[in-house]
Each structure stands twice: as C-alpha cells, then as structure tokens.
Amino acid sequence: MPAITNGKFVERIRFFDGQRLFASDLQDLEQFNRAMRWLHNQSLHRAGIASGFAVSGNRDAREVVIQPGYAIDVDGREIVLTLPLTLQVPPLASDGAGRPVSYDLVISYPSDDDAKEVETREGVCVSREAVRLREAPVVCWVELAPADGIGTQAALREERSAKSQQLAREIEAGTRIRLARAEVLNCRLNQPLSLAQRRNSQPQQQPYTFAGRTPLTKRILTASTEASGILLRVQVDTSAANFRSPPRYFAHITGERHFTIPILEVNRSLILDGFGRIEKSDRLSLTFGLLIPRILLDQHGVTSAEELKRLVEALDPDDDPANTAETPLKTWTVEWLGVEG
Q: What pLDDT is attached to residue 146?
C-alpha cells in the first residue's frame, strides 16, 4: 500500500524580504517538514523499535523500568523517550480463577492533547498561547484475552476484553509498539518480562547465531533404561546466547566413545554411542537425548536386566547423593548451535 494516500499536493513554503508572515505560514512550514520526514520513515522502515527502549522487570517486581529509546509507528511518526520511566505493574490479583493475567507493555505517539505545554507567550491583543509542546510517548498496559475465558468476574472481564481487543488491533496494525510481555499475579510479575514479542523497525539482514559447548556433569545428566536401550538426557543452558525468541537448535555429542566400566564386579570394555536428538527447547535451554541402542549393548555382553541397571548406575551416579564419583562420560561434551531468524 503506498505511503502517499491523502491526495494533497506537495507544496513548498517560500519567503521574500518584506513579506508579512502569519502564524499559519510557519505552522505550514513545520507541518511540511514533519510530513516529509514521516513519509520517509513510512516508506523505508517498518513499524517497530529503532534503538533503545530497554525494559527491565524481574519475577515478583511491582514496577518495570523503561529506558530511553526511539521507535517508529506505522504512519512514520517518531516515538521518542528521553528519560528513564518507571511504571507500576497492573494492580490485578488474578484472572478470577487464581491464574496469572498476561499483558503487553506498549507505547504510542502522543496526540496534541497528550502533549505538555512547556512555554506560553502573550500575543498582541490575543490571549496567552502555547508556543512549545513537549512530546512524550503514551505508555500503557494492554491485557491479553484469556484462551478459555474462565473467570468469576465475567461482566468486568467482558468490558475489559472489548477495550483490549481494540488495543490489540492497534498493536497489530503498528499504531502502538510493543515493548515487552508480562504475566501478572497478585499485583506483581509472575515471570521476568519477555522481550521476544518486540519488533524492530529494521529487521536483521542475517540470522543471529550463537554456538556453545556444555560438558556433561552429574548436575545436568540423567540416564534411564528404555525398551530400545539406554537413554541419556542432558539439560543444556543456552541463556548466554540472549536469544529473544526460540531459535532452531543443532546439537551433537563429542568425546571418547571407548570406556571400561565395572559391571557386576567385572570390568567391561564398551563402545558407547547412539542416536541423538533434541527433545525440547526454548530460548533459554534445550534438552538433548542420546539413545544407546540395546543391540550395541548386546554385542558387549550387557544383556541381563541387572547388568543394564548397573550400567545405568555407572553412567548416572546422581541416584546416590553421597556418591562423589565422576561419571564415565566426563569426556563427553554437547556442542550446540542456535539460529534465530
């Protein structure tokens, strides 16, 4: 859809020596420059955050802090915050059924009525008028409609829902810009603020990637017997990557595959390997599973249920809190790569 839709002519304001100027002449000049700037923004950028607008709020916080920033709405208007702003968390106990309520923290361009008069002057034979208006973003919380509509305060929730739906449409259209998403329970944050829903005015030309290596330790490794073999699970912390949304992960295990493990008082020489896959993941972690197939264990003489049990205990000594022995898989490392589009 073209940015130029109002059908007006583009007129440049010109002046000459001795010209008598009216307030409307200077207002038109200011309006022309602003309209051209907005047209530029609307044509070359999309609605979203251009820089700044960092938002902080941890679990159990009653306030969130918004840092200075610059954003552009769908009409190309600049939304500028020059000083940090502290905002109270919505004073809501629950959704009426004891569950948290989700909110979007949004900003929008101020109307003339929202602008603050910072300077006024007396005119000739006219009353005092404002000559400077200070623009500041309009900040508000937008409640997200619950998925199932459960709640005891049905009438109040229906009224709030109608208003929230209108605000939600403005967010999707780009008139309001989303800064963060919050879960509120008992008038405080139930979880840290989520920034995954933010939209940048200039999307990245290349995907964001981050790679890491996580050694296997007793704290993150568990082993269990399955019908098809032994399943090793590793909980991998990927929070150092600072992904804003769940990425696509790739992972595999590196390290020594040949082990000598005592099973039923007999040292067994085993080659442990298997089929790896990512079982679940989010932007902060992933769970990597490695299935050591039973057919491989059978080849090494580990066939009975008791032998399998002893092998699992040798791989995962966490079952005994007093056991401080190192796992035989101490040489193994999960190497992972996350790609955020």
A: 60
